[in-house]
User: Fold this.
Amino acid sequence: MEAADERLPVSLLTGFLGSGKSTLLSKLLRRDDMDRTAVVVNEFGEVGLDHALIAHSSENTVLLSSGCLCCTVRSDMVDTLRDLYLKRARQEVPEFQRVVIETTGLADPAPILHTLMSDPLIAARYRLDGVVTTVDAVNGWATLDKQMESVKQAAVADRILLTKTDIADPLRAAALTERLRRLNPAAPIVPAAHGEVAPDRLFGAGLFDPKRKTVDVQAWLNAEAYAGQAAHAHGHNHDHDHGKPDVNRHDDRVGAFCLFVDEPFDWDRLAYWLDLLAAYRGEDLLRIKGLINVKGEDRPVAIHGVQNLFHPPAQLEAWPDDDRRSRIVFITRDLDRATIEETLRTVVSGANAGESANANG
Assistant:
């Protein structure tokens, strides 16, 4: 786990078309505290126009223009990250301390997260710091209604940046903020005008803090953010009739909840349960994060999964507080809490799923 602290943090910057990713990145790269950042920029199509919009482009900025980063150029991304690391070691590029990958607005973040988590050479040199998603305060509501990709981008985010707040109607921006909180209760929502935001509000979202070399698992998991969400899930003001379900309301298909389990887990049974979920409903498991109390162990184990792929479990140095309950956060699509709990009771004999809160009621 000490070695994990030495790996370079990678932040995934995603968000739907026109939500302000390039403006944000351009502003960020002008800041002195971002001068040791390597940037991988992907643009859908043959011409990478976003590359020209980024201020102070250098050899640390790599353009992948052969297709969408989430599918056809995944191998290019692996090659690029390996090449960047080798150039850094050979001092052919400045010694960057952080990598930001900007995806195309059409990207599904899951395959990129898979690559960062599963490729052994990449995982040995880089660690996922977090997912930053930009949402347009002017058009974001309509985009969430129409584009499933935008819902997934917001649902798996560790930070949500609400852009264009300087020109958005305040009431509509407030309503969109509440909608995003229901979709992803644990992610801080950071408002930004003109693309201006301090880097420390976006980065440092991962399990390990490389500056202090300590575990900030409470911030990473933020399980308490899911408590009480169910009571407020239907107190909002939708632009549709509850009696006539709106097929365009993609986030009605996405649920976020946290299970708290009192009894310690038998690790083999827990692993079997997670394998079953991944095998049968992997496409609907948008993200899983957990802190597990394992039988016979004094220290907790952190788990992290995206769809049907799980990162190797990490045993932490200590519990973050006196609460020894296991807590597992689920962000799912068309997969409700009751189904998850039923499989848990069936497979993990002796584990008693305790109180849990469902963010979508």
Q: What stands out?
A: Residues 230-247, 351-361 have pLDDT under 50 and may be disordered. The radius of gyration is 20 Å.
